[in-house]
Amino acid sequence: MTSTLRIAVSQEQGNTPVTVFRLTGDIDANTQSDLESKAEEVIGAGTQNLLLDLSEVTYMGSAGFRAMHAIAGKLGDEQSATAIKSSHLKLLNPSAEVSKVIKTLGFDSYLDIYDDINKAVNSF
Amino acid sequence: MEPLPNSNEQLQFLKQSKLFENAPHSVLADIGRIATTVSVKADERIMEKGDEGTSMYIIVDGQVRVHDDDLVLTRLGKGDVFGEMAALDSEVRSASVTAEVDTILFQLEQSSMYEIVSRRPEAAKAIIHLLCQREKSIVHDVTERSFKVRALERELEIGRDIQARFLPENLPQVSGWEIAARLEPAREVAGDFYDAFHINSNNRIGLLVGDVCGKGVGASLFMTLFRSLIRATSLSVDFMGWTASGTGLSTAEHSAAPRSITDRQTLEDSVTGTNNYVARTHANTSMFASMFFALLDPETGSLIYINAGHEEPVIFAADGSTRRLATTGPVVGIFPNAEFKIQSARLDPQDVLVVFTDGVTEAADTAGGRYTEERLLKFLRNTVDRTPAELLSSMMTDIEAFASGAQQYDDITLLAVRRSA
């Protein structure tokens, strides 16, 4: 089974600039590195805040969560402190199925989740 | 880049090229007449895999890469030849070719080539010589690669054998209880794990099922770490020769005051300790595991557990009811100082506890459909009166039947515990 992930990058301006990844497809062991390298690329180019739009993500496996944790770390979120919410990486519009996995793995305590892009962009 | 060659230089160049190095002057002159000089810019695609093609090329100057999407098969430079397979045999291109720098090529058309070959046996000889050289180099490459693949396979086999020994060789035999487990890795090595072991100091049975994120070698390295840390921390009292009764902090050597440790402390210390160790020591790998870890009191059937971000295990009670054991904390290994709550449950006679990983519910068929939790629960409900070993064996058969030959995508792990009396 080969999965694919498309990443469309756009820039939004809230209180501070926010890069938005609109993701389409599956985030799993096959595509996790695509997400991580795209994030590294924009972080290298100056991105400090990243919003992952998950509306078109059909499946998110554990490898996808690993990628999100790694990206939050690269955005400068302290990983050695007490588990606190990431202030530079946030999520938008996960499907019911993806939301369930986020909650099961406990990532809802780590990443803020929004259902409105304006609210999400202005939260940074 | 050099200027385009004139006809004299063209002949000199053809003489030096790998295709015509042994060809007589008359053949070179003919070839020179039919060769078209082509200039391509850096990054320009010269041919696309799957396209029909009737031209072959000789590189006069520059460099190209032969590739299949992102996979670079080889790089070719001055005097090298490419595209001859499709040009000579009217097949589609077997790979794509892209210029890496500004490049000059001689293009030879199939029809003109065949025309020369039909008149001049020396030209045919030159082409046969080229094809023989190509075959020799392919055989050499394939042989070398098979040696490398075999060496890697041997390493993986060793890894698989060692990893298999990280799983318990025998599950605890406890009167009135039956325990069975299955682990089917998706690849040579697994990121899933299970364990079942006696904790003598408390007279408890530790039951553990976990799933490290991702799969393959990376996940398998962390599987050994998580499984070892949980077992070592929960058995520290046994290892140190402490006993569970009494109070104080001394070791058995000072048995007047052996250390006291409750089940709850054992459970909490092992999961919290493992979490904080991995989160602090290996934070930069972002590796984590979901896990269900329970301590069972075989005398009473009472169970205390931590479900750290894991699929909810299910208890099938003898009266037909079911109970799910929901998460009590996040996954282990990435959230330092995360809180893991302890919950309790009870297994009465004929009750069955089944713990599984998402490799079961997400097992896919050839059309991409998933096995799903509904199907898992329905299957278990209908077969729950079997022994745990039979139950898991029929469960695996059902998953295989569902997948109907589709490649297994994730590790599959199942642990079943039945209180028989």
- Please tell me what the overall shape of chain B is: elongated
Rg of chain B, alpha carbons: 33 Å
Label the CATH architecture of chain A. 2-Layer Sandwich
- Mean pLDDT across residues of chain B: 88
Please indicate the percent range of residues of chain A in DSSP E strands (runs of 2 or more). 25-35%
The CATH architecture of the largest domain in chain B would be 4-Layer Sandwich
Mean pLDDT of chain A: 90
Looking at CATH, the homologous superfamily of chain A is STAS domain
The helical percent of chain B reads: 25-40%
Strand content of chain B: 15-25%
| Widest sheet, order of strands of chain A | 1-2-3-4-5
What's the helix and strand layout?
The complex is a heterodimer of chains A (124) and B (421).
Chain A: E1 5-13, E2 17-27, H1 32-44, E3 50-60, H2 62-74, E4 89-92, H3 96-105, E5 113-114, H4 117-122
Parallel strand pairs in A: 2-3, 3-4, 4-5
Antiparallel strand pairs in A: 1-2
Helix pairs in contact in A: 1-2
Chain B: H1 7-16, H2 25-34, E1 36-40, E2 45-47, E3 55-61, E4 64-68, E5 71-76, E6 81-82, H3 84-89, E7 96-99, E8 103-109, H4 110-119, H5 121-164, E9 177-184, E10 192-199, E11 204-212, H6 216-234, H7 236-239, H8 263-281, E12 289-296, E13 302-308, E14 314-316, E15 322-324, E16 343-346, E17 352-356, H9 358-361, H10 373-383, H11 388-403, E18 412-419
Antiparallel strand pairs in B: 1-8, 2-7, 3-6, 3-8, 4-5, 4-7, 9-18, 10-11, 11-12, 12-13, 13-16, 14-15, 14-17, 17-18
Helix pairs in contact in B: 1-2, 4-5, 6-8, 10-11
